[in-house]
Design brief:
- GO terms for molecular function: 5-carboxymethyl-2-hydroxymuconate delta-isomerase activity; 5-oxopent-3-ene-1,2,5-tricarboxylate decarboxylase activity; metal ion binding.
- This is 2-hydroxyhepta-2,4-diene-1,7-dioate isomerase.
- With 262 residues, this protein is mainly beta.
- 11% of the residues lie in helices and 37% in strands.
- The strands form three sheets. Strands 1, 2, 3, 4, 5, 6, 7, 8, 11, 12, 13 and 16 form a twelve-stranded mixed beta sheet that branches. It has a five-stranded mixed beta sheet with strand order 9-19-18-14-15. Strands 10-17 form a two-stranded antiparallel ribbon.
- 41% of the residues are buried.
Length: 262
């Protein structure tokens, strides 16, 4: 069993538990539960920062477009954005599909949860500031422009499933060598590895904390691989990251969720 932090829906605090990532079994107070049977909420509470174009393939896909106006050059520093609190949902919760959108882009990514205040840390010390790791789905409405903040495409309600837990840092030998897979309705639609990051995690933390502080509980999304798959209403999305966990959610028409809420 590996140590994790989990959060139940309706509870304010995060609690510690044991997990077998191979069979998705949670051990809590001496009892064992199937993670699918637990009402799990997102186990993070701080600001969530995403990073654009941090996979080699994602940058290569743009081709010569990165050399055109307005920037005329590939990014020389991490390109950050925020997934605000309204986007965050937990394991098993529905992902809302807006009425005017045929499908959503599934952004499978590793979430790095910060364990202590990080300001101007070195690459050599960067991982000592990490509390643990989680699975994140950086959902987005498909769009092509990278030159303006994609707030309406990336910051809608429910566009950031997180979970099912935060696994302790020391349970992951090398976070820069983790396989990431996306299944939609049981079919493998994407596979990549954090070994393909342009900025490995220690470098990413060092470069970001050189100009801004990451606080306890903040989560850094290391990047979304190229060719992100699309999911439509009714599709079941499963993201697996080796040694971290499995995050599952289903896409549901937004109007159906609003109808249930009334």
């Amino acid at each position: 069993m590996r140590k994790v932090k989990i959060k139940f829906r309706g509870m304010l605090q995060v609690i510690e538990a044991g997990v077998n990532t191979a069979n998705h079994i949670v051990e809590l107070q001496g009892k064992r539960y199937d993670a699918d049977k637990l009402p799990l909420d997102a186990p993070v509470s701080g600001t969530i920062y995403g990073v654009l174009l941090n996979y080699k393939g994602a940058l290569a896909t743009l081709g010569n477009a990165v050399n055109e106006p307005p920037y005329k050059v590939a990014p020389k520093a991490p390109v950050l954005y925020i997934k605000p609190a309204n986007t965050v949902i937990g394991y098993g919760m529905p992902i809302p599909l807006p009425d005017h959108v045929p499908a959503l882009e599934i952004g499978a990514t590793l979430g790095v949860v910060i364990g202590r205040k990080a300001t101007r840390v070195s690459e050599e010390q960067a991982l000592t500031y990490v509390d643990g790791y989680t699975v994140v789905n950086d959902v987005s409405i498909p769009h092509t422009s990278l030159y303006r903040p994609a707030v309406s495409q990336k910051s809608r309600d429910g566009f950031c499933p997180v979970g099912p837990w935060v696994i302790e840092r020391d349970a992951v030998v090398n976070p820069d060598a983790l396989r990431v897979r996306v299944y939609i309705n049981g079919e493998l639609r994407q596979e990549n590895t954090t070994a393909n990051l342009i900025r490995p995690i220690p470098r990413l933390i060092a470069e970001i904390t050189d100009f801004m502080t990451l606080n306890i509980g903040d989560t850094l999304l290391v990047g979304v691989p190229e060719d992100a798959p699309l999911a439509k209403a009714g599709d079941h999305v499963r993201i697996e990251i080796d040694n971290i966990g499995i995050l599952e959610n289903t896409v549901v028409h937004e109007r159906e969720l609003y109808k249930e809420a009334k």
